[in-house]
From TrEMBL:
It is found in: Nucleus. Residues 40-106 form the Chromo domain. This is DNA helicase. InterPro entries: CHD, Chromo-like_dom_sf, Chromo/chromo_shadow_dom, Chromo_domain, Helicase_ATP-bd, P-loop_NTPase, SNF2-like_sf, SNF2_N. One of its GO terms (molecular function) is ATP binding. GO terms for cellular component: nucleus. PROSITE patterns: CHROMO_2, HELICASE_ATP_BIND_1. Its main location: nucleus. Transmembrane segments: none annotated. Residues 139-258 form the Helicase ATP-binding domain.
Amino acid sequence: MEQLEKDKRIHQKIKRFKTKHAQMRHLFQEDEEPFNPDYVEVDRILDVSHSVDKDNGEPVIYYLVKWCSLPYEDATWELKEDVDEGKVEEFQKIQNRQPRLKRMSRPSASSWKKLEESREYNNGNTLREYQLEGVNWLLFNWYNRQNCILADEMGLGKTIQSITLLSEVYAAGIQGPFLVIAPLSTITNWEREFSTWTNMNAIVYHGSLASRQMIQQYEMYFKDEKDHLIPGAYKFDALITTFEMVLSDCPELREISCWGRWRDILSHARCKRRLSERDVETICRVILVFCLLHYRGDENIKSFIWELITPPENGREPQTLLNHSGLSIPVPRGRKGKRVKAQSTFDVQKVEWIRKYNPDTLLLDDSYRKHLKHQCNKVLLRVRMLYYLKQEVIGEHAEAVLKGADIREVDIWMPEMEQQEVPAAWWDAEADRSLLAGVFKHGGFSLYKPMIFMRRGVRPDLNLFSSSLELNVHR
């Protein structure tokens, strides 16, 4: 009782409980078990099945129905005649969509235009004046790649403003998938507002393992002609889930591309203990800080690495990194390279965030520190190379390349080569493209050195190939 009395909202909670209880007593007799009418209302149609009536031979159509207020695992097959026609039309619209495998890039900041008046959204809904101002502010921050928090009193439509923001982004060509993380008590409201204000397909990802498996099977991915799921071809536009679902390290959500490449490192690295994606990010930042302290090369590279590893302020991506100049300029290498006067605008020792990633306290193995110090130039140049590959060569096709797309079907930009000498007589532009995609996907050219000596269509010498791919444990 003492804990309840400390809750400032306890009186409101008791009042709401009594009101709800009184309403239920009017609906049911004391000896009756309360029944929720939502249980017989169609929420979504998940699938369709065509059959033939055994008695008369006529075609019969069944729909797999997910009912309101019930989990996916309680979905049932129902006759077409028993299903709301409006829900059938919604299902058919989703089914008739074409899978979107190509992802659009975010527009530049200069593309932002203020909305002078609210457009008419789904069901004739329009924004109030103060809500329009909030959406304009959210859009401005999105175009400028700046995170933000919309704070206001309850009941003024923060959910609606957030959803209409996504609707505007969707209209600009960035058609998801969007991730909405909300408290469990509000996810139903989020789903309802999505359907009220937009035509986007929003799904709620929550529930037992059986329910989540059904969501994956019927709601998340498009299927090919053989009824196989198409990876990366998301059927939904927005996915609504809870904090707990994300924190539980749900493997299905990690498959969605918006979670970054840390999971790739985790899957390929042979770590002695289980590491989270945040652990891997911390390790990478510490290593790059150490290399930066001992780097004796070009100042442009030094500035670039510093901008890359600096944690964004308030979640904001560094603006200078987005338009980083000098990526295409040849880098002085070795002792013959010209010395460049110090142009750094940063002081490692005076930066507050460096304490969290201080290599003096986190890199304790002397032999590894010695090795890393010897290889620091190579590490930073390789990071620069991979960034260049992603930003200027692979570009918007990065996701497709990482998922193993046929490089012949990927339209990537090929930089002009200063050296026309090729490693083998059969080497052509297709081999150049494959090499660049492979280096981007796996992180280094050294893995591909033995490949350039192979003849096309001939099985390589496995002994030579294996010995060439031996990896240093410190790499």
